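Contributing new records

If you add data, match the layout below exactly. Sequence lines come first and carry their own label; structure lines follow with theirs. Keep one chain per record. Anything else will be rejected by the validation script.
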Amino acid sequence: MTPPAPEEIERLFTREDGTFHFSRWGHPIVPVIFGVEEASLPPLKGAIEAVVLAAGHRMAEVDPELGTNLMVFFLKDWEELTALDNLDRLVPELDALVPRLIAADASQYRLFRFDQNGAIRAAFVFLRMTGDFASRPAEEIGLELAVKAMLDWSVAAFAQTSPLVQGGDGIARLRPDISAVLRAAYDPVLPDDSRNPAIAFRILARAMRNYG
């Protein structure tokens, strides 16, 4: 697999309307997971921690303002969202969101909140456990949800290809190019938020050092 090109990195953060937006977490990540059996929690949280550390970012036991800031919900169907207590206070757009997810037959959805500087402050990840997705190992699901929650990727970023690759041992891992971009995106010299596509070249320069 060859390293990413500048235009490929730019595409990862380009919206459907052509605008560009790069944003990463500016705070340590504190995850909480709802809707899974107790046995699934350690591999899921372990996978999230592995991705966070691979990016060079940090986790914490508690967020001083929010308590938790990465909330992951596993669901059987989207209607369950409307039955979750107080979720509409955290996600005011919930009433409009649920019909859209049902109409699109979506399997997952991410919603970010940003701080005053544009950095990711909190994220809500909704996963509908259906079809092949429901039969995947918890570690694999955890890796994918973590990668997709680490940056404000465009909708098209992983529409055609997964951020994971299956190894010869049958274990899923981060794709080397995505791992390199992720690590580069969290370089301390880069801003937490940018609307300038030129940042793709800065990410590329660092990704080339991280690649492989």
